[in-house]
# Entry
Amino acid sequence: MNASSSLMMIGVGTAGCALARGVRQAFGEDIRLLLADTDAGTGRSDGPFVLLGGDRLSGRGTGGNDVNGRMAAEDSLHALDASLQGVRLAVVVTALGGGTGTGATIEIVKHLRSRAIAATVFATEPFKMEGEERARRARGALPLIAENANGAFFIPLDKLVQGEDNLAEALQRAIGTLASGIALFWRLLEKPGYIRLDVERLLHIVEQAGRARFAAIEAQGPGRAAEILDKLARTPLLARSEGPLQSVLLGILAGDDLRLGECAKLADGVQALAGGKVPFTLATVNDEQTFAGRLCAVVFFFELGAGTADGDAQGKTPRRAARRNAKNGSALAVGPQAQGGRFSNIEATFYNNENLDVPTFIRRGISIES
Ligand SMILES: Nc1nc2c(ncn2[C@@H]2O[C@H](COP(=O)(O)OP(=O)(O)O)[C@@H](O)[C@H]2O)c(=O)[nH]1
Ligand SMILES: [Mg+2]
# Structure
């Protein structure tokens, strides 16, 4: 186990933990990993596991209730802390739509931020056929996750599969596709290349990032760079949204036959896709053993999370983010709310007459003195 790495992956919820395991399998080497779920069954397979809300839910899951997921995570934040020693960047992988991935991720990302650990989130959104209730639950969590994250990738499962797949295959394929994309991201961070990306450099890139999109494409043969650009231009995963892009990151992973011309072509093409004039970072990994004859490109578009103009200590201004979400028509931006504060534009989540959007230490009357 890579216990000293400043980079950690945290899987949240049942499908989120399956996704995290898929990334480790695709990466093929040890990843500093933590799995967190309200369902004790998830901890029975390998990997360091934290049971969320054991006293509250007895290890039986949330029953699809995301408020239970939030409360369970709050109960167990101290147990997570024990594993976070030295972590600078947490990559949180989760699947929205159920109770744990949806609810607990919100609390975990907020907690990481309060500990000054950057959190980049990869979260799937449910298939359309799963129904409106799951879709609504997922939509409700998006702004709360995005405004506390350093880059939040929300990936609709429908965009990862072809329509004709049968359900079991579709689920498998979606997890597999996403896991291999995230594994390439991991490789970019953990493997040296001519143009190196490491955790500190990435932290700088995502410092002010909010929502983000990513796609990973691979090709072989003489026209491989052009083929990748063609596919990038057509993938629904990178389709532009309204928000301005804050930065673009291109990772190129290849064997020893990587040509300078291919790097230049991909870099130009990706910047053009981003609409030009956006801060651009290129990183490469040369690994003949893994990528002999192959060329992989991983492209990340980061939207601006929120400016620093309001002077928020960590460069994020949730209130502005909430306003922006309201403008973009995101879920939960339903106001009006009587009180001001960071969630003034967002419908509060109440449970047992407690407003979960109010920090725990205030709700529970705990005084924090330095
Ligand atoms: N790709 C894939 N997605 C799944 C699978 N099971 C559940 N999901 C997705 O994950 C979402 C959350 O489900 P689940 O992980 O069971 O809920 P949780 O444990 O309460 O977070 C669902 O709405 C689905 O979109 C699976 O086996 N494969
Ligand atoms: Mg579950």
